[in-house]
Specification:
The chain has 142 residues and is an alpha/beta fold. It has one domain: Dehydroquinase, class II (Rossmann fold). The chain has a five-stranded parallel β-sheet, sandwiched between helices. Strand 3, helix 4 and strand 4 form a beta-alpha-beta unit. Helix 2 packs parallel to helix 5 and helix 3 packs parallel to helix 4. The longest helix is centred in the N-terminal third of the chain and has 14 residues. The protein binds 1,3,4-trihydroxy-5-OXO-cyclohexanecarboxylic acid.
Length: 142
């Protein structure tokens, strides 16, 4: 089983970026935990972070060719702006779970709308880094 975890803009700063909102784990910590869980299950978990929308689109398109089975995506701010990411996910038709560290519904109203949610298998928001783990365990069991 091949699983791709995508992280959008500013998530490279996790650990120091608004830790009261996003937690103290670094992106490296989160990715290492996911890769360990996947390996234990005999799956391959690739991770990719970019601050650039087009690079995320390119990576999703590549996942289509690579026969990735499942995508876990925290598109960060692009969640609320990007028709391009929505269209890329639809184009490859790979099932995905949308993850947010914070509970976006407790926050500013511009974070309440997502261009991804209605085409996602599920949405996890507000569980911190555990949200990625929950999504991964779901993917591994599906
Ligand atoms: C986020 C929530 C987004 O609104 C924000 O732009 C982010 C991170 C989260 O994980 O809680 O960068 O996706």
């Amino acid at each position: 089983q091949q699983i791709l975890v995508l992280h959008g803009p500013n998530l490279n700063l996790l650990g120091t970026r608004e830790p009261e909102v996003y937690g103290r784990q670094t992106l490296g910590d989160i990715n290492a935990n996911l890769q360990q869980i996947a390996a234990q299950a005999g799956a391959v978990c690739s991770v990719f972070q970019s601050n650039h929308e087009g690079e995320l689109v390119d990576r999703i398109q590549k996942a289509g060719g690579d026969k990735v089975d499942f995508i876990i995506i925290n598109a960060a701010a692009y969640t609320h702006t990007s028709v391009a990411l929505r269209d890329a996910l639809a184009a490859v038709a790979i099932p995905f779970v949308e993850v947010h560290l914070s509970n976006v519904y407790k926050r500013e109203s511009f974070r309440h709308h997502s261009y991804l949610s209605d085409t996602a298998r599920a949405v996890v928001a507000g569980l911190g880094a555990f949200g990625y783990e929950a999504a991964l365990r779901y993917a591994l069991s599906s």
